[in-house]
User: What shape does this take?
Amino acid sequence: MELIPMTQSHVAQVAALEQVCFSDPWSEASVAGELANELSFWLVAVEGETVLGYVGSQTVLDSTDILNVAVSPDHRGRGIGRALLTELEQRLRQQGVTEVLLEVRPSNAPAIALYTSLGFVQVGRRPNYYLNPREDALILKKEWNT
Assistant: This one.
């Protein structure tokens, strides 16, 4: 498995994973649009030509928001999500980023367990943030010194 920046050749597979993994998925056009956004950085985990998972982020100054994290259901349990988040953090640290934030459904216990094991802590809650089904979002944050 390789962790590499997302390119146009990955967009269709990333958008397909969005459809499989999320109830309110990003469109292929939205994913593609991130390639042109200078604030965005997306990593994909690939084996050969197959995208196994991805993480998308946007950075402003020294703070990054993780937009999406997903791993193909067929490849979960292999540490791909952890590898993507760890690699993203390493790259962000090199750029001078000192904090990362994300939202997660309270019902997504596996994701919360992963994030907390990586040092994220809950700093807030957004009522009715998610649709399909409607659910609050927990706001998690991780900070470090560069």
In short: Helices lie at 11-21, 28-35, 80-94, 109-117.
